[in-house]
């Protein structure tokens, strides 16, 4: 009897916890936000008959609005954000924003001619956040799984992470940057300079 009562209590607690996680953010609204972003933004841009430079420009406007890169930037720096100066924070967010938009605008080109198929949402343990599940059919092999972590604040929805085939934009950057700062005498300043160099190289015209 005691075991049965304990099981009942634990089950009730689990339902309350998961229920609270689901109620914390409007999952349907978050999914609609991602659907609109992909349909009227990503899919239209990658399928448009325009130059890569114009695509980059349109992606910049789209992702700059859809992604909360200030929030993501603070996360990826972790404890280094707390010790950074105001100027270091400004410089890091600036180059991190531009580099990520440039990187992901090209990454999404892999989905040219494809349509995102949505597979519902999954609760997040983080307050005010939910996962929107999607996949993109590919010519060969299984569909590419794309997971969007969406954060809601005051009725406004923003993407705070994109996970493609298990690779997290935020988590991978956090691990990479933490290791770079730890192993480089220049610390955060050296990281900012390295990212600026990568952005410059990525923005340079390709030799013909």
Write down the Rg.
Answer: 20 Å
The number of helical segments is 8
Helicity range: 55-70%
Compute the separation of the termini in Å: 78 Å
Strand order of the largest sheet: 1-2-3-4-5
The general outline is globular
The CATH superfamily is Tgt2/MlaC
Instruction: Tell me the fraction of residues in β-strands, as a range.
Output: 15-25%
Mean pLDDT: 84
Largest sheet: 5 strands, antiparallel
CATH hierarchy: architecture: Roll
Give me the secondary-structure category.
alpha+beta
Total strand count, please?
5
Could you name the CATH topology? Nuclear Transport Factor 2, Chain: A
The top-level CATH class is: Alpha Beta
Number of domains: 1
Q: pLDDT below 50 for ≥5 consecutive residues: which ranges?
A: 1-23
List the helices and strands in order.
HHHHHHEEEEEHH
Report on this model:
The protein has 208 residues and is α+β, with helices and mostly antiparallel strands. It has a single domain (27-203), classed as Tgt2/MlaC (Nuclear Transport Factor 2, Chain: A, Roll). The protein has 8 helices and 5 strands; from the N terminus they run H-H-H-H-H-H-E-E-E-E-E-H-H. The radius of gyration is 20 Å and the shape is globular. The chain starts with a helix and ends in a 5-residue tail after the last helix. It has helices at residues 2-23, 27-47, 52-66, 69-77, 79-83, 86-107, 169-183, 187-203; strands at residues 117-123, 129-136, 144-153, 156-164, 167-168. It has a 5-stranded antiparallel beta sheet with strand order 1-2-3-4-5. The longest helix is centred in the first third of the chain and has 22 residues, at 2-23.
């Amino acid at each position: 009897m005691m075991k049965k009562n304990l099981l009942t209590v634990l089950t009730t607690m689990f339902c309350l916890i998961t229920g609270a996680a689901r109620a914390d953010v409007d999952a349907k609204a978050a999914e609609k936000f991602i659907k609109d972003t992909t349909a009227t933004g990503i899919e239209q841009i990658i399928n448009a008959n325009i130059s890569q430079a114009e695509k980059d420009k349109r992606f910049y406007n789209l992702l700059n609005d859809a992604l909360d890169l200030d929030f993501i930037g603070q996360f990826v720096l972790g404890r280094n954000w707390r010790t950074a100066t105001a100027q270091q924070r400004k410089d890091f967010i600036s180059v991190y924003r531009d580099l990520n938009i440039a990187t992901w605008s090209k990454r999404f080109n892999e989905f040219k001619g494809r349509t995102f198929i949505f597979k519902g949402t999954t609760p997040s343990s983080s307050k005010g956040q939910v996962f929107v599940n999607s996949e993109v059919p590919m010519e060969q092999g299984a569909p590419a799984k794309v997971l969007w972590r969406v954060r809601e604040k005051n009725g406004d929805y923003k993407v705070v992470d994109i996970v493609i085939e298990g690779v997290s934009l935020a988590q991978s950057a956090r691990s990479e940057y933490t290791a770079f700062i730890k192993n480089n005498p220049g610390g955060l300043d050296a990281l900012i300079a390295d990212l600026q160099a990568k952005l410059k190289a990525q923005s340079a015209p390709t030799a013909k």
